[in-house]
Amino acid sequence: MVMRLATALDVPLREHNALLLAAGFAPVWRETDLAAPELSQVSDAVGHMLAQQEPFPGVAVDRQWNLLKANQGAARLVEFLVGPLAPGAKVNLADALVAPDVLRPFLTNWADVVRYFVRSVEADAAADGRPETAALLARLLAYEGVRSALQEPTSYGAASPVLPMHFRKGDVSLELFTTIATLGIPRDITLEELRIECFFPMDAATAKILRGWAA
To answer: Which residues, 6+ apart, have CB-to-CB distance to 158 below 8 Å?
Structure first.
């Protein structure tokens, strides 16, 4: 009955396990490291998607926006904005976006982007009830300027069909929009929570710069 209810209500796999435990049963869904051999085909598929995204940036993240994989386009963008990352450094893209001293100095429409992004993290925290997601949300809200940005009115009727991320450093201006893909019919918690985010140029000038960096 627990299995049927969780399936009918489209309960996420992690919470599905929690319901089973609360009912006195063993969990049925695994949480496997993406680098584990049993997920090699999926990991290869994610790598293929990121490679296909070149020369434009692409990343794979987990539910708390911890970076799992990135293509060379993403590495080149980050290196241009903030410098190269230390090998093996753990990166949380939510912190990098919202904190005052990483991407924010170069993101001219930071308030608009962060207002949308933090709302999405709020939705995740409400949906999964995990302490890790709640801690991430609390950390983001504690950064300078975030709560005031959330109180600003949302712009409606803008000319752009999507909200771009407008980066500027020196004389270089980049406008990018993103898409987020998830796996179909996942049967592992890691895979259900996996997101593949791809960045695309909003204009020809941005596309030319990104292609030029890859040449």
So the answer is: none
